[in-house]
Structures are given as C-alpha cells and as structure tokens.
Amino acid sequence: MKKTLLATAVLASLVSAAAQSATVYDQDGTTLKVGGRAEVRAEFKDTDDGSIVDKSRARINFSGVTKISDTLTGFGFMEYEIKPGEEVDNRYLFAGFGTQIGDFSYGRQDTANVQVSDMTDIASVHSGYQQVFDASSDKENNTFLYSGTFIDALNVQANYTAGEVDDADSFGLSALYSFDFGLDLGVAHTDAQTDETQTTLAAAYSAGKFYGAISYALGDAFNDADVISDMTSLEVALQYKFTKQFRMIGIIAQQEIDDIDTEDFYAVEAQYRFNKSIRTFVTYQLNQIDGDEDSLVAGIRYNF
Q1: Which 3 state secondary structure label does DSSP give 136?
Q2: What is the pLDDT of residue 47?
Q3: Beta-strand relationship, 52-54 and 30-45
Q4: What residue ranges do the domains of the chain occupy?
Q5: What are phi and psi of 290, to 5 degrees?
Q6: Which of 155, 204, 220, 233 has the fewest CB atoms within 10 Å, measured from its CB?
C-alpha cells in the first residue's frame, strides 16, 4: 500500500480539482496549502434576443495534513465558490485520519461513485452527467468515506451518507484499477433508502497525446412525476493534445429516465493552456432534445 501521507495528498488534490496550490506552511510535520481559481465564462444561447449569461465563478480551497505518528496522519479540506451576485457556496468541508489501511473522513465530500464517474468528466463545462441523483454525486453532506489504495493500482472507496430527513440514507462502493499500459477500469454501485440505485461502469485509455473514456450507468431514479423509474446513462469523452498548449475535447452524453430523454447532446471544446496557471477555452454543445437550446461558452480560467 502507498504511504498514508501520499494517499491523503492525492485525495485532496482530486477533490479540489486544482491544477496547482501554494504551500503556505510546512513545519513540524504539518503542511497547509492554499489553491483555487478565477474563471470568467460567458454563455451564448440560440435565443431571439441573443442574450449572454454570465457563468463566471471563483473558488478558493485550503488543505492541511499533519503527522501524528509514523502510521497516522490527520487531514482536512475545505473549498468555497463565489459567483457574481450570489452568496458564497461551501463546496467541500471534511476532515479525517490517514492510516496504514487507508483514509477515513467525514463531512461534505464526494461519494464513492465519483471516482468512476469522473473518468469521463474532463470538459470545462459540458461533461459530468454520470452522477444522476444526490446519493451518487459529489459534495454531499454527512458523508463518511473510506479510501484505500492496494497493490499500487487498485483504489477502493466506500461511503455512507446520512440523510438530513427520514429514510434518506444511502451507501456506495467503488473500485478503480489502473493497468501499467494506460487502461483504467472502474465500477461503482450506489443504493439509497429512497429506492434510487445506480451502477456505473467505466473504462479509460490513455496513450501519448490521446485520452478516451466511456462510462455507462443504469438503475432507478425519480422521473418528472416523482415516481421511481428505470434509468440509463451514457457518456463518452475524447481528448487529443495537438501541442503542449492546445487540445481538443469531444463529449457525447445520453440519458433516459422512464424512456424519456433527460440528456442528449454532443459537445466539442477547444482549449489553449498558456501555462499551468492560465487557459482559455471555447465549447459548443449541440442539444438533440426538442426545445433545448444549443449552448456556446467561452471562458478564461486562472489557477492559483
């Protein structure tokens, strides 16, 4: 098993999704890092008035790790998001302990399904549709999470989320195995007292400048009439890095609940990364559902 401190650092970096962070304190076995982003985004839709929707946001996160003994660490993470004209949103807030058998944490954090659904969530805007309901999604309150890495290639997660109302508890279990030739395979299952269930299967392959992933989910979810119904969901993600700075991303997403399309679109994104800190992107979403508008989003993102 990997060293506990390393596993904890990887967990924090995955949750924050920050490209980089600054170490502001590192002394006596305790480390504190600060990171985040400033992201201005404008969405253009095919409407008669040609309106522009401001999708800008800023995030700031803090992560800390402290060594308690040779076999035990403590860690904490919190992240906040600010949108123009809106209140500050608490995205993540959790703390826990890292041990020789894995990390144990509690708070507002991702469920076990997320490490699998994230395999196709690679676009700046138009991806991430395999977290069909709350019990299988990220940023859930009252979540107990275990994360352990075995034989340096298998990452196992299990979560129990206590609902804030009666009969709303849920649990999840997932496993992600990474082969040394670029193939990743993942499986997750979520079960909720609300009778919602989701099983997610995913595979990803990376080779040189290419990355491709596909995820498929099936189970039961509430339809528009609040009745539990059959659900299926498919997401395909492709990325090719033409240069160190420039890449193209393609997304296909299809989702049905009770034989009615809830998602059905294609998206293509052009992204240019000047360096690790700043990037620009333009993404276009072509909706296939009658009445849903196409969407063009252009943005600039600065990571710190």
Answers
A1: helix
A2: 63
A3: antiparallel
A4: 4-303
A5: -55, 130
A6: 220
